[in-house]
Amino acid sequence: MNQALVTKFPVTDKTREAMDVTLRGCEELIPKEDWLQKLAKSEATGVPLRIKLGLDPTAPDIHIGHTVVLNKMRQLQDLGHQVIFLIGDFTSLIGDPSGRNSTRPPLTPEQIKANAETYYKQASLVLDPAKTEIRYNSEWSLPLGSMGMIQLAAKYTVARMMERNDFHDRFHAGTPISVHEFLYPLMQGYDSVALKSDLELGGTDQKFNLLMGRHLQAEYGQEPQCILTMPLLEGLDGVDKMSKSKNNYIGITEEANSMFAKVLSISDTLMWRWYTLLSFKSMAEIEALKKEVEGGRNPKDAKVMLAKEITTRFHSAAAADAAEQDFINRSKGGVPDDIPEVALSGAPLGIGALLKSAGLAPSTSEANRLIEGGGVRVDSSVVSDKGLKLDAGTYVVQVGKRKFAKVTLS
């Protein structure tokens, strides 16, 4: 253990509570004993710990699964610690090889700048912007220069680098590995040295890079950071991780009504997992709510509370209330207040063509499939005839539970 941690600080109830917050929903905390002492030291000295999250602005599809690690940052921020949101504008020029079987193409400075703005906008919906330190790793990486880069590279061996799974697998498969890819984990680790980080967060796929930070801090005579990895959030289906390709995601820019309804669509079992990883309620509050449900309270009540919390975070309390009312209206067979209006010509028009032209179905064949499944209504009446033709007039057309349009046909 580092000399700075040899001095034992008293572990109080407050320290243990902070440890519980840290461990909530996490995959792994390395090493736990060091983090407990860092928390105790912070409490005894009144000096906040420095907590780092580094993100390369590679423009992922932004959904609530991406915010799991940001939620953890916010929990630690609320304990009074200093959160550092690090944008990897320099490391993006290298390209992160983590989990890849080929070289990642580097981004241009223009792409990096545009994507960094998107990332920070995302982070600001979860973190407290007034208490968040925004840094760019080009600040210290560029001044390092070629001599500094060579000195940094001397602090780690090729043998250790090749222990990393993706490098190991690519080497044995005969897949090319460029020398510059070895620089990525070194530069990410050097970020921790530059920022004097006490804790670094990341996904499970970043473990090698996070441990590099500990190694390099020790090499530079610093107290090594602890590392915290967070799990991947299961999507709406409760089976696969949330992803756009699986269509089991909630985008953080989705409109409030859709966001609210999607949260309500998850299973009662998955709801508690989402509470742990996404809610800002304390675990004591969540456990109390769980006991109420086990005691007979309708689980839908708990799910509505979660849906309103998430919708409020990415929109507003008023939008969450309106989304709840919209959901109630739809569940009663009512029509939402605000639905798109579409003007079409060609009356009389077949129902399949109408659904496609109104944007309610991607194709006529898909429209026919929806009709066969009883999922299409015109003016609240279920359509069962695929050959139905509508004359000129105005109709409220509904597909499934959530898609509506007021169609004026001429």
UniProtKB/TrEMBL annotation:
GO terms for molecular function: ATP binding; RNA binding; tyrosine-tRNA ligase activity. ATP binds at residue 244. Its EC number is 6.1.1.1. Pfam families: S4, tRNA-synt_1b. SUPFAM superfamilies: Alpha-L RNA-binding motif, Nucleotidylyl transferase. The keyword Transport does not apply. It is found in: Cytoplasm. Homodimer. PANTHER family: TYROSINE--TRNA LIGASE, TYROSYL-TRNA SYNTHETASE. Catalyzes the attachment of tyrosine to tRNA(Tyr) in a two-step reaction: tyrosine is first activated by ATP to form Tyr-AMP and then transferred to the acceptor end of tRNA(Tyr). Belongs to the class-I aminoacyl-tRNA synthetase family. TyrS type 2 subfamily. This is Tyrosine--tRNA ligase.
